[in-house]
Amino acid sequence: MRIANSTNVRGGFTLVELLVVIAIIGVLIALLLPAVQQAREAARRMSCSNNLRQQGLALHNYHDTHNSFPFGGRHNITYAGTSWRFAILPYLEQKAIYDLDRASGHQLNTYAGGGSNTDINAYRAETRVLFNLVVDGYVCPSSTINTLFAANNSASLISIGAVTQAHHYVGIMGAYPDPAGRTDTFYAVQYGSYAADNGILTIGETQAIRDVTDGTSQTMIVSEQSGNTDPNLRNRQLANYHTGWGGISTTGTVSEWRAGSANQHKYGNGLTAVFHSPNPRSTGVEADKEWDFNTPLTSFHPGGVQVLLSDGSARFLQETIPLTTLQQLCTRNDGTVIQGF
Fold first, then answer.
1. N or C: at which end does the chain have fewer Cβ atoms within 10 angstroms?
2. Rounded Cα gap, residues 132 and 164, in angstroms
3. Are 272 and 235 spatial neighbours (Cβ–Cβ below 8 Å)?
């Protein structure tokens, strides 16, 4: 009887085959990674857009209550006044903070910005509730800027360890120069910048929907300002719930504020009059300080910025948009109808 003797020999990968497999996997990863990154950025951009829509809803709820949009900024003679960001806190689930301010006689928003007040007693307990407060709706998820930052512009604030939120959205007070050629809609302030009152979130006065004669779907009210980690190209100051001081009372008009003494500071924190295209590589003296009025619209979204129109809708504007078109969008009553922006 013959016994068959069989052996099964199993071959392994050769080194060349292994390297080919590794190379194929590497190529697949290289192809998939950009798609994954794009998907993540798309989700972040959608979240940013939702933030703007929430701000838009809050602004319209404010309008329903007060028959106008809030002041872009109000000013005291000595200290900072209320900004639009603070005014809509009750509609962003922060009513307790807002009510605390009202109960304290508006001391919270008055002293929260500080900057040049060196009196440690001025920063009362009510003010400190803004320290470490983060309103999620004011944070763009694509931004690499820290959500919180420590005060570095006031000895008294530094001494008490003030840490506040860096906001990623800015109110639109209008455009400079006026796209319709008017000369009475802007005015020079110190440091070489220009304030404007041809937009919606203006200083010392309020605007209603009836004042937006260009149409609410044609007029911006808020924009991102979440890009560029250089603070001198952004508009940020402690808390950013204030807008600095301008030499008039909180009930003063914009004309009174314009006529304020030349040595009284006029800060544009939380607001901008658009003078630059989005995401500029550089700016002039009108935007080389964080409190200037012409700080640009910026973001870390590739190719542009998210903006909020005054009808409550959010749009993505390409950074290649003509500056004139952008300024027309920032103006409430220049008489221009813009198609396909």
1. N
2. 5
3. yes
CA terminus-to-terminus distance, the chain: 92
Question: Positive or negative, the Cα torsion across 330, 333, 334, 338?
Answer: positive
- Both tokens assigned to 177: 């120069």
- DSSP output for 99-120: HHHHHTTSHHHHHHS-SS---G
Per DSSP, which regions of 136-270 are E strands?
Answer: 148-150, 163-165, 169-175, 186-188, 194-196, 220-224
Closest CA to 314 of 86, 91, 72, 55: 55
**Mean pLDDT across the chain, nearest whole number?**
78
CB 232 within 8 A of CB 290: yes
* pLDDT class of 164 with cuts at 50, 70, 90: confident
Beta strands per DSSP E along the chain: 73-75, 80-83, 148-150, 163-165, 169-175, 186-188, 194-196, 220-224, 271-274, 304-309, 314-318
- Nearest in space to 75 (alpha carbons), one of 240, 251, 263: 251
Instruction: Give the tokens for residue 274.
Output: 């658009």
Q: How confident is the model at residue 27 (pLDDT cuts 50, 70, 90)?
A: confident
* Range in 64-68, 142-146, 172-176, 226-230 the model is least confident about: 226-230
Encoding tokens for residue 49? 């857009």
